[in-house]
């Protein structure tokens, strides 16, 4: 299992600094916030020999010991406190959609780490802009008015592509319970409606062709009805696994699962 790295903690740490009224945070305050956000598991939770800390806590402490933020002038450490710099605020502002995307979608620990690693390498080492596909902007009333138009258009294209990819005889069903909105609400208001659940983070790098991205991205999403989607994310600290949800529906649900 891949361990979390200091570099992967840069963006979420800056995020928490920015939330403080004085744009600063101590290491002892940062550790539980990152733990709650990232939900580490496996070896990252191993207790260090002769210490009460686990390996995850030590990695967070190393942000100070190894001057991780100072390398990019993203934050300064003084009197036990990390303070975000102007450069750090600019970096966070340019990538705030990425961290929000990772937070909202409750990705599993390994996928979250991979996503943070991609963000670090692309945005700091390669200086490449990353775009996202965010299903949430498709289902939040009024959000389209304030969200970046290009993000909305990207997300709609992925959604439309996924619906076409997963449709059966012209209808789109929930991957977990088999619910179909058209059958329940009628053709006029229910046809083609579904939510798209992201299993893995999906990024688009600048200069990449959207058509090629969609071919890969569609295999990392599944169509889910609104109820199942909310149940999956009901417990933010422990989102449900799709296979587990299906097993519970088989035991207790009313809808016939589809074998597709």
What would your notes on this structure say?
With 260 residues, the protein is mainly α. It has helices at 10-19, 27-38, 55-65, 86-104, 109-125, 136-139, 149-166, 181-185, 187-190, 210-217, 226-232, 242-252, and strands at 24-26, 75-78, 81-84, 130-132, 195-198, 203-205, 221-224. The protein is built from twelve helices and seven strands. The strands form three sheets. A three-stranded antiparallel beta sheet has the order 1-3-2. A hairpin with a 2-residue loop joins β2 (75-78) and β3. α2 crosses α3 (55-65) and α4 (86-104) runs antiparallel to α5. The protein is globular.
Write the layout of secondary structure elements.
Layout: H1 10-19, E1 24-26, H2 27-38, H3 55-65, E2 75-78, E3 81-84, H4 86-104, H5 109-125, E4 130-132, H6 136-139, H7 149-166, H8 181-185, H9 187-190, E5 195-198, E6 203-205, H10 210-217, E7 221-224, H11 226-232, H12 242-252
Antiparallel strand pairs: 1-3, 2-3, 4-6, 5-7
